[in-house]
């Protein structure tokens, strides 16, 4: 899989570390177990957080289809959607 870094250009996924869902928000209470372990497993377009550790060392939000692994875009995590 190749990830398009906005700063470094398109790179192999091995240069990146995967964190998870970029749309998850911390809830205001509830069971801590559910907050950590109970997650959706979406099929289709999804935004994920990736860290470019072997490159610019920045966090990216990558738009990826979880069924095909096709990446439709990437932006720096601090940029607005």
TrEMBL record:
Any GO BP: tetrahydrofolate metabolic process
InterPro entries: SoxD, SoxD_sf
One MF term in the entry's GO annotations: sarcosine oxidase activity
Domain of life: Bacteria
Record-linked Gene3D superfamilies: Folate-binding superfamily (3.30.2270.10)
Protein name: Sarcosine oxidase subunit delta
Organism: Skermanella stibiiresistens SB22
Lineage, uppermost ranks: Bacteria, Pseudomonadati, Pseudomonadota, Alphaproteobacteria, Rhodospirillales
